[in-house]
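Question (not urgent): is this output format expected?
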Amino acid sequence: MSLSIRNQLPGTITSVTAGEAMATVKVRLIGGQEITAAITADAVKDLGFAEGAAVKALVKSTEVSLATAPVDGLSIRNQIAGTVTDVATGNAMGSVKVSVEGGELTAAITKDAVEALGLAAGSSVVALIKSTEVSLAAA
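Got this back:
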């Protein structure tokens, strides 16, 4: 299946914590970072997700925020450090490519944010992704 989701990071499930309706699934990405996905308990069961399973973490570029340093006091648990490799801006929006250990992320953010953060190739950033915005696919 081909998808328009640019951010597809391979990894391995390290834990599954199921609740009545939702579950949190922790995935160790191939670069060593950990990302958490909040998905339905039914999806965990239907897809047979368990510790050790190979998966791809999928995140739409519009769901990736960027910061210039790690952020404390925030409910967003997924914070992945990286380096900007490319910035393209139009009149209103920008596309920022970020190299992370083991892959690449793309963030779609406003042109104003690109300028305010001073983002350019070589800038150090932290990609912020809410766990509810991470989907998982069996690899």
